[in-house]
Amino acid sequence: MENFIVSARKYRPDTFQTVVGQASITATLKNAIKNSQLAHAYLFCGPRGVGKTTCARIFAKTINCQNLTAETEPCNQCESCQAFNSNRSYNIHELDAASNNSVDDIRNLTDQVRIPPQIGKYSIYIIDEVHMLSQAAFNAFLKTLEEPPKHAIFILATTEKHKIIPTILSRCQIFDFNRIKIGDISEHLGYVARQESVDIESEALNVIAHKADGAMRDALSIFDQIVSFSGRSISYKDVISNLNVLDYDYYFRLIEMLLKNDVPGALMLFNDVLDHGFDGHHFITGLSSHLRDLLVCKDAVTVQLLEVGGEIKEKYKSQGVACDADFLLEALKISNECDIQYKASQNKRLLVELSLIRMAQLSLKKK
């Protein structure tokens, strides 16, 4: 049986060009290499799954490449690149600070830093989850980080920059990685699907991208899960069923009922949502998002803030036209109040039902 490699590893970027959603950072790093303006310490910070460690590895590989391409990318042909690709490079050292966070571990690192590289100009030290170092380990690391040997470059990566002491921060060039946009995640997932010969609907890709919450690694893990569930042909219904996501259709139908002052219909729709195993809080936060999306659809300037595609985007636009801006603002205010009060409420179902009744009566006030 052939060994399965998860998509997050199989499609991990190996050049700056293949990194998704971090164009400004990759451009800065490439220019630093091209102009020989390499700092001795870098700090890559940002949420999980956005490419911090990946960029650190690509940066480390590119620094020591002996035949850089015209686009300042590693050649993958020289001895240094081949050693890195086969995990036998003695110039690039990775340390996991979560399990090596004591003073002794840092002392071993500072002793190792003095040894010059065998191939290439630089020894690069990638320290992942650097915020996990103890206070004493941080202090032991300070002097080496400030004045390392000429051949040493440190790349620190963390998800929690606020836990790093200011004296460390002041010694590093800091790069803040962004959450990856939903459109970029959808596009990359579409590329992965084509490579894997998987037929998947664009709306399904959009749901996965929303669920990933800006993390490419999470999106690829969800994609693998859906492929295991549905096989090589994946529909929008398959994705919302597997991920337990509320169908957009519920909210479109609900807004139609609210505009018609159909209180019984709205309450029965909410009952149907609960019967399908969804939580009331999940429903009300989803309704808030739907109302917000309808509101941004009403203006040609803000419509670009709508992070859905295909047929669903057209549905939003047509329903946005049918809704009065005052109705949407008042409904959004009610749903937001319900969201805030939900956890403290003793009768959560009644709270949501009262909110729906209030929303259904908003258009009556206009008549």
Throw out a few tags for this protein.
367 residues; alpha/beta; Rossmann fold; Helicase, Ruva Protein, domain 3; Zinc Finger, Delta Prime, domain 3; 3 domains; five-stranded parallel sheet; two-stranded parallel ribbon; 17 helices; elongated
Quick description:
With 367 residues, the protein is an alpha/beta fold. It is 53% helix and 8% strand. Strand 3 (123-128), helix 6 (135-146) and strand 4 (152-158) form a beta-alpha-beta unit.
Structural description of this entry:
By secondary structure, the chain is an alpha/beta fold. The chain has 3 domains: 170 residues, 3-Layer(aba) Sandwich (Rossmann fold), CATH 3.40.50; 62 residues, Helicase, Ruva Protein, domain 3 (Orthogonal Bundle); 119 residues, Zinc Finger, Delta Prime, domain 3, CATH 1.20.272. It contains 17 helices and 7 strands. The strands form 2 sheets. The chain has a 5-stranded parallel β-sheet with strand order 2-3-4-1-5, covered by helices on one side. A two-stranded parallel ribbon has the order 6-7. Helix 8 crosses helix 9, helix 12 runs parallel beside helix 15 and helix 14 crosses helix 15. The longest helix has 18 residues. The model has no long low-confidence stretch (mean pLDDT 83).
CATH fold title of the largest domain: Rossmann fold
User: Distance between termini?
Assistant: 69 Å
Portion of residues within helices: 40-55%
CATH superfamily of the largest domain: P-loop containing nucleotide triphosphate hydrolases
What is the name of the CATH class of the largest domain?
A: Alpha Beta
What is the succession of H and E elements? HHEHHEHEHEHEHEHHEHHHHHHH
Residue fraction in strands:
5-15%
Strand order of the largest sheet: 2-3-4-1-5
The overall strand count is 7
